[in-house]
Amino acid sequence: MAKTLVIVESPAKAKTIEKFLGKSHYTVKASVGHVRDLPKSTLGVDIENNFEPRYINIRGKGDLIKELKKEAKKSKRVYLATDPDREGEAISWHLAYILGIDEHDECRIEFNEITKDAIKKAIKNPRSIDLKLVDAQQARRVLDRLLGYQISPILWVKVRKGLSAGRVQSVTTKLICEKEKEINEFVPKEYWSLDIEGKTKDDENILFKFVSFNDEKVDLNSEEDVNKILENIKDKKLTVEKIESKTRRKSAPKPYTTSVLQQDAANKLSFTTKKTMIVAQELYEGVDIEGEGTVGLISYIRTDSKRISDEAREKAKSYILDELGEKYYKENSEKKENKEKKKVQDAHEAIRPTSIHRTPESVKSSLSKDQFKLYNLIWRRFVASQMEDSVFDVLNVDCKIGDALFRATGSVMKFDGYTKVYNFTEREDKILPIIEENDELEVNKFIPEQHFTQPPARYTEASLVKTLEELGIGRPSTYAPTIATILNRGYVEKQGNSLHPTELGMIVTDILNINFQKFIDVDFTAQMENKLDEIEEGNIKWKSVVSEVYEPLKEAIKEANEKIEKINMDEETDEICELCGSNMVIKYGRFGRFMACKNYPECKNTKPLVNKVGVKCPKCKEGDIILRKSKKGKAFYGCSNYPECDFISWYKPTGEVCKECGSYMIEKRTKNETKEVCSNKECKAEGRIIE
User: Fold this and answer.
1) What is the rounded CA–CA span in Å between residue 121 and residue 19?
2) Going by C-beta distance under 8 Å and a sequence separation of 6 or more, which residues neighbour residue 81?
3) Where are the domains of the chain?
4) Mean pLDDT on 127-134
5) DSSP 8-state class, residue 617
6) 17: closest CA among 242, 233, 239, 293?
7) Cα(452)–Cα(444) distance, integer angstroms
8) What is the CATH number of domain 142-186+457-563?
9) What is the pTM of this model?
10) DSSP annotation string for 519-559
11) DSSP codes of every residue in 363-394
């Protein structure tokens, strides 16, 4: 008996779906991603023929294509069940071409989650391939190819081989470079704070912060400004003028979009964007759960919609009412998303668990450590999104001393609301002593303190994703691969959690900025995303969008080839080659910077570049502390005498010794500044502020 063939993208997904459909009536195969694409060795776009793409079967997939053709030929029907987005639609379109399926036939099925009900519902509701979605993907692919394959060779000739430019990656690198320039150009400004420690009649201390002088806000920009206030208030009484109690509500968070999940996973779990998407893909495609078999635990992971289906909402409601109680459920109508900036891919739901009753603890034993962490985050966020606000009582106490107003603020949680399930902060109540209006308080001490404004923080992966989304650059599916690309190209490197541009990244960005400014402009890139949305909606033709971009690109390429001079990035050092006596130079290679003899090719001596930080090893006292990178690319500090000395630290040693316990001091960045702190976790000693 002939079976029905279902083709998906990944073997893991195929395994899960075949279990739901049954092997007796269905055969489920995986395409393992794309089967056709533009060739790697040539442009693959016929510019003279209205930008017609020249697709070929991907090298190495010949046997797989033969197998799919064989299965399709003997099947009574073929369903294309690739991911429910542009890329997935294009894969189905290419599969239809290879298998000889009419694209207008009802051969396409899609689902937002890999569950038995969702799969069977999809089988009952096939549709034809959405050619508007396919066209949007083709436009993106061709645009990226034209920009990348026409600009990148210029970089190879003028800088070095192996470099690349891209519609999204170059803009992303530019953002990081511009942030670095802001930091370098930043000039700190002095400012002061002024606090008063008062004592109540019950001998309890309370801290008040300066608010205003003569009922006007006053900026304390210098010690002189502070002294003027102190002169006015010295030897005067601190009197409680007003006590105000307010109730504040904190709304429950919305369910996860792709970008917010990446940000939260970075901030709360220390996951890279790449790791987040890998683990999320595993949870989506199916995990073998004890007692259930293989099942998809979360809905589709590439989405910028916060929408939740009515069915999922009702199940969440039942769970909250049954497990937590009526007071924790919030009856709220779903608000429409703001679509002014860009089209929200609302065909998809937000990222949520496929079953609310599959709690993190109930499946923990079947998940890896990372799978559990991410699933726990997603499950709790979804449940919280359907719960009541948390409620706080906020108490403000205003005190007058002379003409100056000072304020103390306390807060107490009145109702935990959604934080009962989604609480990743270590918030503590700040309870103020019992105090009444007109009370006179004793002044224990005045606390003036000098501060300096801090430069803007460098991007982390989380903050970069947030910025890209806000600017309308890229889509949920592109954030992680874009960051991975600029790291792999050596344009950007991670130091701790911060993204730093390399010298190479700065040079390439400057070249692109001067010669291809239009094409790495934030607004241009965002407009391209909007035009892809317009293509998807059927409002414009994809080839007209490509043509509009190509004409100015062609002119810019011609000018760039003539104008750009070759850049020598070799940096001569004082280090002498031990083989021939010439100076060593720092070169850029495929895998980053290295040392090579200046006398190349006569002398071919090379060695790794040792990045000394100017501090002796605190353990052996002889070796130099050098900056190294782990296999995963994370920066750490070790001794140059390794393996004889095994000293390592995630934080940079300062060369100083703790005055309290004798341990070595390290640099540690807080939200506002970089401080010198003791490396001994038991010791809380702090040193100077470094920056």
Assistant:
1) 15
2) 6, 7, 8, 17, 109, 110, 111, 122
3) 4-129, 142-186+457-563, 190-251+390-452, 263-384, 570-609
4) 96
5) -
6) 293
7) 26
8) 1.10.460.10
9) 0.82
10) GG-HHHHHHHHHHHHHHHTTSS-HHHHHHHHHHHHHHHHHH
11) HGGGS-HHHHHHHHHHHHHHHHHTBPPEEEEE
Element at 646 (helix H, strand E): none
Cα(340)–Cα(307) distance, integer angstroms: 17
Kind and range of the H or E run holding 398: strand 390-401
Segment holding 637, helix H or strand E: strand 635-639
> 251 with 385: CB under 8 angstroms?
no
Q: Angle at Cα 411 formed by Cα 406 and Cα 412, nearest 5°?
A: 155
**pLDDT at res. 336:** 44
Task: Please report, for residues 374, 485, 572, 659, the alpha-carbon distance to residue 492 in angstroms, rounded to integers and kept in the order given.
Answer: 27, 9, 22, 37
Least Cα distance to 164 among 607, 614, 590, 642 occurs for 590
User: Once rounded to an integer, what is the mean pLDDT over residues 591-598?
Assistant: 79
Q: pLDDT by residue (tens digit) across 383-438?
A: 999 999 999 999 999 999 999 999 999 999 999 999 999 987 766 789 889 889 99
Closest to 529 (Cα-Cα) out of 345, 292, 316:
345
Residues 298-325, mean pLDDT to the nearest whole number: 94
pLDDT in tens, 312-360: 999 999 999 999 999 999 986 454 444 434 444 445 799 999 999 999 9
pLDDT one-digit tens code per residue, 600-658: 888 989 887 777 888 999 999 999 999 887 766 677 899 988 889 999 998 899 999 99
Closest CA to 16 of 289, 402, 217: 289
What would the CATH number be for the domain defined by 190-251+390-452? 2.70.20.10
Query: Rounded distance, CA 577 to CA 586, Å?
Result: 12
Within 8 A by CB and 6+ apart from 75, the residues are 2, 3, 4, 5, 27
pLDDT-based confidence at residue 599 (cuts at 50, 70, 90): confident
Which residue's structure tokens are 């130091």?
Answer: 495
> In 3-state terms, what secondary structure has residue 224?
helix
Q: What is the 3-state secondary structure (H, E, C) of 565-607?
A: CCCCCCEEEEEECCCCCCEEEEEEECCEEEEEECCCCCCCCEE
Q: Residues, the chain, total? A: 691
CB-based contact 207:194 (threshold 8 Å): no
Our CA angle for 345, 348, 349, nearest 5°, is: 120
Residue 37 CA to residue 58 CA, distance in Å, equals 6
The secondary structure of 94-116, three-state, reads HHHHHHCCCCCCCCECCCCECCH
Residues 6+ apart with CB under 8 A from 553: 146, 147, 150, 516, 519
Torsion-angle region of residue 33: left (phi > 0), alpha (psi -120 to 50) or beta? Answer: left
Architecture of domain 263-384 in CATH?
Orthogonal Bundle (1.10)
- Residue 497: which pLDDT band, with cuts at 50, 70 and 90? confident
SS3 492: strand
Residue 591 has what pLDDT?
59
CA 136/CA 120 separation, integer angstroms: 28
Lowest-confidence pick of 76-80, 196-200, 207-211, 567-571:
567-571
Third-level CATH fold of 4-129: Rossmann fold (3.40.50)
Give the per-residue pLDDT at 590: 61
Token pair recorded at residue 207: 């801290």
Q: Which residues lie below 8 Å from residue 55, measured CB to CB, with a gap of 6+? A: 36, 37, 38, 44, 94
Pairing of strands 4-8, 77-80: parallel
The residues annotated as belonging to the active site are 300
